[in-house]
Amino acid sequence: MSVSRVDVTETAVRLIERLKTIYGDLMFHQSGGCCDGSSPMCYPRKEFKIGERDVFLGVVADCPVYISGMQFEYWKGAHLTIDAVKGRGSGFSVEAPEGVRFIIRSRIYSDEEWAVLEAQGEPPRGEQLVG
Asked: What pLDDT shows up at residue 115?
């Protein structure tokens, strides 16, 4: 059994693909800020500095996804899914001018999924080489 920590909806994939034609390779970072800062932020891959404590959750639509170390402690028991909805998000995330915003949907892992994740150990921290 394989268990991922992050996934993406088809709606978000379509938006990501459109944004890639404008900005090139992208990445996501889920911080712990207030307001829009608690939404997943999408950046051109080379324009956001990943810290040593940031946790690598995985790759969605060829985009690496990170979460701040402190936020990971709160969210590690939940599977995260990046989605896109109508509305204005933060001016820092590349989708803001499009009239849509990325959001996080979450669900708690089942006992079986949690056992697999615990056996895998903690996910890596810091920037990871991705595609």
From this structure: 96
